[in-house]
Give the backbone structure.
Amino acid sequence: MSWSAKPHYSPADCKSGTAGFQEMVHSRSLLALSRQIIWDLQSLKMTLARCRLSCMSDAPTAPMQALEQVAKGLLFPSETDVPLVAFFWSAEDIALTPQRLAQLAGVPAGTAIKTVKLDNFFRPATKEEDWHNAQEQAEARRFQELVRVIKSNLADVKVFRVGETSIDVFVVGRVEGGFAGLRTRVVET
């Protein structure tokens, strides 16, 4: 199951010898396919972890519901538009460092992790331009609301960019019992 907004492959494409499968193999490098598979597995791992946490009632309900509701249907704009997925990590840490994020998110050792400010990360998505049509203005307002909900539900919010070209992004803040936030991916070539 792919978490990307636009699936990169489908069961129909995977029938050996079909034109769709051959086109997929020729048009995408093995590295790109590997990255997509890793992203899918990490997303599945996070979803399963979140399901286990919600069954144990460790996750703070109000912040998670607020994040899930405001992020529903939003795709973060980049070279590939990817949904924002809410998550919760049960942890006793007071501060979240890049090293601790790597442990919690299962980031491979040696992967580049950069921290950026929340407003700087969301600025391209929240800025309303005169040339935007009605749909684009409405989307900018939805992203403005998203930032407001993040700020009102999470403490000490940080944005971590993991990787260099295909970048996993974690918008993370403290909540009762651990860390919560949103995960997405941006592609910058």
Notes: The helical segments are 19-27, 30-55, 61-71, 98-105, 118-126, 134-153. The first helix runs from residue 19 to 27. Residues 58-187 form a domain with the Nuia fold (CATH 3.40.1460.10).
